[in-house]
Amino acid sequence: MTEYSSLEKIRLEKIEQLKAEGINPFPHRSQRTHISLQAIAALEAAEKKASPGVSPEEVTATLAGRIRAMRPMGKLTFAHIEDGDGRIQIFLRINELGQERVDFFNNKLDLGDFVQASGSMMRTRAGEPTLLVRDFSILAKAVSPLPAAKDETLEDGSVIRHAALEDSELRARQRYADLAVNPDVRKVFRTRSAIIRFLREFLDEHDFLEVETPILQPIYGGAAAKPFVTYHNQLKQNLFLRISFELYLKRLLVGNLERVYEIGRDFRNEGVSFKHNPEFTQLEFYWAYADYLKVMELTEQMIAYVATQVLGKTKFTYQGMELDFTPPWKRLELRQGLLDVTGIDIASHPTSASLLDALKKMNKTPDPKSTRGKLIDFMLSEFLEPTLIQPTFLYDYPRDISPLAKSKANDPMTVERFEGYVAGFELCNAFTELNDPLDQESRFLEMGRDYSQDDEEKHPMDEDYLRAMRYGMPPNGGFGMGVDRLVMLMTDKHNIRDILLFPHLRSEEQNS
RNA sequence: GGGCGAGUAGCUCAAUGGUAGAGCAGCGGCCUUUUAAGCCGUUGGUUGAGGGUUCGAAUCCCUCCUCGCUCACCA
Hints:
Elements: H1 6-20, H2 36-49, E1 60-72, E2 76-82, E3 87-93, H3 94-97, H4 99-108, E4 114-123, E5 129-140, E6 150-153, E7 159-162, H5 168-173, H6 175-181, H7 183-205, E8 209-210, E9 216-217, E10 229-232, E11 237-241, H8 246-254, E12 259-267, E13 279-288, H9 292-311, E14 315-318, E15 321-324, E16 330-333, H10 334-342, H11 352-359, H12 372-384, E17 392-398, E18 407-408, E19 411-422, E20 425-432, H13 437-450, H14 463-470, E21 476-482, H15 483-491
Parallel strand pairs: 3-5, 8-12, 16-17
Antiparallel strand pairs: 1-2, 1-4, 2-3, 4-5, 6-7, 9-11, 10-11, 12-13, 13-21, 14-15, 17-19, 18-19, 19-20, 20-21
The chain binds one RNA strand through helix 1, strand 1, strand 2, strand 3 and strand 6.
């Protein structure tokens, strides 16, 4: 049974009073004719058209929205209502409505209620576009008061937010309330939507086919991560929530779909942090007859396209860093990058023992049981990654941490793979895809041999994937990107929770 | 999982061992161009939960919960 606060009890009483007067506090329909921006635009157009000294043609409108501010002054009331796109002032006066209706507005309606108001557009003494109300009605009563937020607009137009909802947990848990009171938050999610829309648009225009592949998979693969496990009752079968789309998308290349992509949710059963949510949005594409160098070019074009469409520019600031996404991005061979920051040339250390020995002079030491590839990965994340601020493609990776990538023709221990880094973190990952079924099978076997059972780097053998590859897979380049990271960059948010509508949080029941 | 910090009214925050407070929101008044409207009055609390020390705990101690930062883990 819901327990109501004293504030809510007062509002519940008002609902009963409305019902007693024959007024439905939750009517079925609204007669809105204008959103706030349209009404203001219509007023401005009429003012422009009017001849000097003549009052402009009357603009009538029915507006609808949530009451966000109320300033009752006895015989008149000013209020602001907010709709999806903005705020507009409405003005109620006994001259038009009579004392009884003005009192009704002041006494029976509350902040947060949805109302509609009809009348004509005017300007107040202060010049603010305002609806002079001739009729109004309630559209939906709010039982609970919104977490308060008041805006003060200064002379210079800047807005100070008073009593804003700031508790980050509450904002994430009750995103609906956060969105209702914080217009900036609505803007972040509009931007997120636009980023995804323009990613699609870019790939569609480059003849990529958007496809949907299974989220519930009998064998997981395509990435190094722990999966979530679930169970199909009737089939009596364990299923995994996918950790990547890779193996399914590449099956489609076997089927002569030459350019495919998917934007969807991946699930990884790992730690939660400011840049990790258990489910996150991933973009992957696979491109037949391309290699990782062509993918690199397409990547920088794609990001620049999205930035231009969404932000109107390819240079923008993230957490105080001025980032320039204008193609071409910097290209840096992983070996060279590591040599620059550590003085160690991985090419002169062909074994893990030798490389581990060289690493002993560094101030941070890796897990001594690591394979050579894992040692290189350690060097990358510890010493090189934090230095990569401007968009940079790091390329040519060790083979044993890249079991699905194709080796370089002249160097079997190195694969054609690149990762895009920006602002000190990884944005995307791509390679010339391994399409030799015999090589792929031996890679799977290698993983089984060199990595312990619980190692996330270990990929389970996927027999059906090998069967598909044996029918022949065209040479191709593949690409994967964490869309949430891109959204963080373009909205200048440091925490992934700020760009997920409903980030993962512990259940409220667990609290005490 | 480790370290540090935080949790007080619907919201934003005070109160450092001695009667739990302010602003906003709410409620009752006054007010015909306000805009964080203003003025007068007023309601509202298991101080995250539990235990302990003390004559007395929001405050000190212990345990737990949640959140944030950070380290570890982690494409």
